[in-house]
Amino acid sequence: MKKRTLFLLPFLLALASLQAQQTSTDTTWKLKYRENGLVPPAYPVSLTVAQDGSGDYRSIQEAVNAVRDLSQVQVVINIKPGVYKEKLIIPSWKKNIFLKGEGETIITNADYSGKEYPGGNDQFGRSKYSTYTSYTVLVQGDDFKAENITIQNTAGRVGQAVALHVEGDRAVFINCRLLGNQDTLYAATSGSRQLYRDCYIEGTTDFIFGEATCVFKNCSIKSLTNSYITAAATSQAQQFGFVFMDCKLIAAPDVNKCYLGRPWRPFARTVFLNTEMGSHIIPEGWHNWNNVANEKTVLYAESGNTGAGAATASRVKWSRVLSKKQVAAYSVRKILGDWMPGE
Q1: In this predicted model, what pLDDT tens digit does every residue of 239-260 receive, in sequence order?
Q2: First vs last Cα of the chain: how many Å apart?
């Protein structure tokens, strides 16, 4: 009998561990169902993150990891007020995630290009962060949504330091604040469509950049230094790049010389429509990134803009003022194609 007990001991310990894990899980979102006499679903459709332990998880990344892989329904992650010091990743297999902030919800990090990796090289043998890995939040999963969230990179003016990096398709940001300096928002990949509505974005140089097709609607864009606002890298195959509608271009008090954009790649497309432009926008408006050949391939255009920086008489000759007929092609539905995000 003694030998049999010894033989069973590892099994009994393992069983006890599994039961403890189940109990631990049941103290989070599943417990809410059981308390009401309901059988919890296999995967949650709503989770809460709170640093004080009153929610299902204490970190946003833990909640994201708990979402079912390749989810076909939207999962809402409610985030209680607080400063979450995380390098948050929404991987490609975590789809249909909605991060919903409550009160002042801030996600913050301070990585930057050239900063040494902690603990040695990464999986690619690199010892330092690059622009592409300096993000505070990386969104690779499709059908992502964020609302009432501040995403910031606090590295300071040390070069490229991305706050938000978006690669997934059909990404929506509503009433979000994106804070940084150089390269604040990386709207990456040519196959990505993104909508930013009622957002605030600030930075220094090229602080809205990338290949994606993006609509910025009713957004405030603040320049912190004399530099360039956008650096699109639109591919030749894309009809649209960055389109700003009904936005406001504002600046820090000492800023008085900003360009609307310069081409990170030759076929950059950036359009400003019905946007209020401050006096910090210089008369020339656009820059060719010191390459005259770019002037033949880019599409830099404006229409219906107002404010001290909106006059087009002295714009560079290779930019355009769109006609009413041309502006009609720039509806949100036409820009985003078969995807029309719900408001």
Answers
A1: 999 999 999 999 999 999 999 9
A2: 68
Cβ–Cβ under 8 Å, residues 54 and 32: no
Q: Which residues pair with 230 in a beta bridge?
A: 208, 261
Q: What structural domains and CATH numbers belong to the chain?
A: 34-336 (2.160.20.10)
Report yes or no: 61 and 51 within 8 Å, Cβ to Cβ. no
pTM: 0.89
- Whether 183 sits among the annotated catalytic residues: the reply is yes
According to DSSP, the residues that pair with 272 across neighbouring strands are 244, 302
Phi-psi region of 328 (alpha: psi -120 to 50; beta: other; left: phi over 0): alpha
Kindly tell me the sign of the dihedral angle through the C-alpha atoms of 11, 13, 14, 15. positive
Give the CA count within 13 Å in the CB-facing half-sphere of 49. 28
Question: What token pair was written down for 80?
Answer: 């209680």
| 322 closest CA partner among 248, 249, 272, 262 | 272
- Choosing from 122, 206, 246, 254, which is the catalytic residue? 206
How much of the chain exceeds pLDDT 70, in percent? 91
Q: Using one digit for the tens of pLDDT, what is the confidence trace for 87-142?
A: 999 999 999 999 999 999 999 999 999 999 988 888 788 899 999 999 999 999 99
Per-residue tokens: 20: 């403890």
Q: Is 169 a catalytic residue?
A: no
Structure tokens at 238: 């894309």
Taking the C-alpha atoms of residue 249 and residue 234, their distance in angstroms, rounded to an integer, is 22
Q: Which of 26, 52, 183, 198 is catalytic?
A: 183
Phi, psi for 133 (deg, rounded to 5): -115, 5
Task: Decide if pLDDT at 216 tops 50.
Answer: yes
The answer to whether 167 touches 191, Cβ cutoff 8 Å, is no
Cα–Cα distance, 194 to 96 (Å, whole number): 14
Residue 200, both tokens: 């605030």
pLDDT band for position 30 (50/70/90)? Answer: confident
Beta bridge partners, 105, equal 82
Given a cut of 90, whether residue 36 has pLDDT beyond it is: no
Give the list of residues 6+ apart from residue 256 with CB closer than 8 angstroms, or none: 226, 279, 280
